[in-house]
Every structure is written in structure tokens, then in C-alpha cells.
């Protein structure tokens, strides 16, 4: 189920996470995957993402940079 996806609550509230590169094989990020990662400052997408679930990056209060280096995402909705 999660071969090409990051599951819901994947890094929920992870205070040690400062930056992340989403691998190019990831096509779906489920809801609340990074919710409350207060020290997360940057996210880079290495490939195209098809869906980003509801509140995937909510409460990431220090998130300053989101880089879509290749491709795009098609939908943002509740997964």
C-alpha cells in the first residue's frame, strides 16, 4: 500500500526533522504526514507528486521553502 506513498502521520510532530527531500518514487503523501513538525524549514520534491492529503504540512510553523524541482501535483484533498 505505501510503496509509492508516505503514510498518514508518517513524521507527525517530529521535532528533530529540519528538512526533507521527498523521493521521486513517492506519488502520494497521506493526511497529517508531517503535521506539527515545528522545526521543519524546507521540503524538496525530487519528482512529481500526484496527491497531497489534508493537513499534510499543517502546523509546520517554520516551513519557509517548498521546492517542486520536477513535475507537479494534481490534487490536494483529504486522503
3D structure, described in words:
The structure is a single chain. With 79 residues, the protein is mainly beta. It is built from no helices and 7 strands. It has strands spanning 5-6, 19-22, 28-29, 42-45, 51-53, 65-68, 75-77. The strands form 2 sheets. Strands 1-3-5-7 form a 4-stranded parallel sheet, with no helix packed on it. The protein has a 3-stranded parallel sheet with strand order 2-4-6, with no helix packed on it. The radius of gyration is 11 Å and the shape is globular.
Keywords:
mainly beta; 4-stranded parallel β-sheet; 3-stranded parallel β-sheet; 28% strand; globular
Describe, in short, the structure shown.
The protein has 79 residues and is mostly beta strands. It has no helices and seven strands. The model has no long low-confidence stretch (mean pLDDT 89).
H/E topology pattern = EEEEEEE
Shape: globular
What's the count of strands?
A: 7
Q: Report helical residue fraction.
A: under 10%
Radius of gyration: 11 Å
Helix-strand category: mainly beta
Helices, by number, come to: 0
- The residue-averaged pLDDT reads 89
Spatial arrangement of strands, main beta sheet: 1-3-5-7
Largest sheet: 4 strands, parallel
> For the terminal residues, how far apart are their CA atoms?
13 Å
Amino acid at each position: 500500500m505505501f510503496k509509492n506513498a508516505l503514510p498518514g502521520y508518517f513524521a507527525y510532530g517530529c521535532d528533530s526533522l529540519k528538512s526533507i527531500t521527498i523521493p521521486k518514487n513517492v506519488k502520494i503523501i497521506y493526511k497529517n504526514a508531517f503535521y506539527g513538525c515545528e522545526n521543519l524549514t524546507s521540503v524538496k520534491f525530487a519528482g512529481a507528486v500526484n496527491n497531497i492529503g489534508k493537513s499534510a504540512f499543517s502546523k509546520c510553523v517554520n516551513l519557509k521553502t517548498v521546492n517542486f524541482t520536477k513535475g507537479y501535483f494534481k490534487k490536494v484533498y483529504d486522503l
